[in-house]
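Operator note (shift B, R.M.): manual run for SLX1 endonuclease requested after the automated queue skipped it. Running by hand, logging everything below so the morning shift can see what happened. Input copied straight from the record, untouched. If output looks odd, do not overwrite the archive copy; leave it for review.
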Amino acid sequence: QFEWAWQHPSSSHRLLAPPPRRPREQPISFALRLLPRLLRAPPWSRLPLRLRWLRPLPPHSQLEEAPPPHVVLEEGAGPPRLKRKKGRGQEEGEAAMLGCGLCEEAMATPLLRCPRPFCKMAAHPPCLARLFLAPEPQQLLPLGGACPGCHAHLLWGDLIRRCRGEAEPEEEEWAEPDDVILPSSAPT
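Run finished. Output pasted below as returned.
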């Protein structure tokens, strides 16, 4: 649906007022100008999407408007799709026995964990979603929020991907516990 709306902005009902193509504007330039607006339109405005540029954009092709802050921008072909590690289920089963750090109940649901190495926060997805959605009670899908353990800003999509084994913890240095880590919304 996103791709169709992107290719047919004037026919799509997702953009109320799509911008017209400028005289002599290349189709790719128009598509890049349209992209941030489409990412801010429902139903995609709350989805944990990733924009991956296979090669760096030329300076004249940079996005005029930044995508929403919860949309992660990446460059390169990306890491290969990872398979779940053997023994992960046993580790999750032991963690589930300990229970959720928010409701303190044990359920069969896999726990979401903070990716910071020193943070021991683990919570059920519904419990953490309620915490992240407290400032936005009318929404169904959280964008992100502060970790209850270390107060780092976490993106909901990254937590879910990590829980499902689709992403490994990044080998980056984390800031001190008092620092708040905000997602980058500017293209690099």
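Quick read of the result: The longest strand covers residues 50-53. The CA atoms of residues 69 and 132 lie 15 Å apart.
Leaving this for review. - R.M.
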